[in-house]
């Protein structure tokens, strides 16, 4: 997976730049399987407007299952900034690994910088990297926190994800509007009650 392709040597570069990448999807194979899948469920894939639907479906799932590569660029914390950085409302779009149906919502991420600070766009990039794969919300939340903890080496990091699961709202229990909140804390966010409270308060403001 993408986070495993990060080269060890990249961590030694001055700007701490890490490139992530994923393998190419086999769209023709996926489209053939999608046609078989849809026809088995009684969907006609031979009308003028549906003949390309299996390929559309293959492309749509390929897109939902692939994160865009990015460089994790960090900068030296020359000013010694030591207060909490909070980024709220990062959009999350993922697929539940049980039904392969979307769950969508927002992530809130905060950290206490150590020797380096992170480019702000990279929070959204990291969320996308772990969201664009079959997931459960708990694992997604933990993976984002663990990855930032490992690659940014902050004094602490906290991640909260709030999402609505379409496998819960559109089928099965058919419970619309239920929002699931998950959180993952590391370093001072876990060890220090005041830090944890500051983070959770910042999400309410
Ligand atoms: N903990 C957790 N559960 C999830 C997540 N996404 C979906 N689920 C649940 O995973 C479960 C899948 O288990 P099953 O009982 O085998 O699936 P199912 O028979 O289709 O269940 P129903 O949805 O109740 O009809 C369901 O309860 C889903 O609501 C998630 O991110 N985290
Ligand atoms: Zn599901």
UniProtKB/TrEMBL annotation:
InterPro entries for the chain: GTP-CH-I_C/QueF, GTP-CH-I_N, GTP_CycHdrlase_I, GTP_CycHdrlase_I_CS, GTP_CycHdrlase_I_dom
Keyword field contains Coiled coil: no
Keyword Zinc: yes
One Pfam family matching this protein: GTP_cyclohydroI
Domain GTP cyclohydrolase I: 31-203
TM region(s), chain numbering: none
Database matches in PROSITE patterns: GTP_CYCLOHYDROL_1_1, GTP_CYCLOHYDROL_1_2
GO cellular component, one term: cytoplasm
Stretch list, region Disordered: 1-22
Pathways involved: Cofactor biosynthesis; 7,8-dihydroneopterin triphosphate biosynthesis; 7,8-dihydroneopterin triphosphate from GTP: step 1/1
One of the record's GO molecular function terms: GTP binding
Enzymatic reactions: GTP + H2O = 7,8-dihydroneopterin 3'-triphosphate + formate + H(+)
UniProt: Zn(2+) binding residues: 96, 99, 167
Keywords: GTP-binding, Hydrolase, Metal-binding, Nucleotide-binding, One-carbon metabolism, Zinc
Stored Gene3D superfamilies: 1.10.286.10, 3.30.1130.10
Gene Ontology biological-process entries: one-carbon metabolic process; tetrahydrobiopterin biosynthetic process; tetrahydrofolate biosynthetic process
EC number of this enzyme: 3.5.4.16
Protein family according to the UniProt entry: Belongs to the GTP cyclohydrolase I family.
PANTHER family in the cross-refs: GTP CYCLOHYDROLASE 1 (PTHR11109:SF7), GTP CYCLOHYDROLASE I (PTHR11109)
Quaternary structure and interacting proteins, as annotated: Homopolymer.
Protein name: GTP cyclohydrolase 1
Gene: folE
């Amino acid at each position: 997976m993408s986070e495993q392709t990060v080269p060890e040597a990249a961590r030694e570069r001055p700007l701490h730049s890490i490139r992530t990448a994923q393998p190419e999807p086999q769209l023709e194979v996926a489209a053939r399987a999608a046609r078989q899948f849809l026809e088995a469920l009684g969907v006609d894939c031979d009308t003028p407007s549906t003949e390309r639907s299996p390929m559309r479906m293959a492309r749509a799932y390929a897109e939902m299952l692939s994160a865009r590569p990015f460089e994790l660029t960090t900068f030296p914390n020359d000013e010694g900034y030591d207060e909490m950085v909070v980024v709220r409302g990062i959009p999350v779009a993922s697929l539940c690994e049980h039904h392969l149906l979307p769950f969508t919502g927002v992530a809130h991420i905060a950290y206490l910088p150590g020797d380096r600070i992170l480019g702000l766009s990279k929070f959204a990039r990291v969320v996308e990297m772990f969201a664009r794969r079959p997931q459960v919300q708990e694992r997604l939340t933990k993976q984002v926190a663990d990855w930032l903890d490992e690659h940014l080496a902050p004094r602490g990091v906290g991640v909260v994800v709030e999402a609505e699961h379409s496998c819960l709202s559109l089928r099965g229990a058919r419970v619309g509007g239920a929002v699931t909140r998950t959180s993952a804390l590391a370093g001072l966010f876990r060890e220090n009650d005041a830090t944890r409270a500051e983070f959770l308060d910042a999400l309410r403001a």
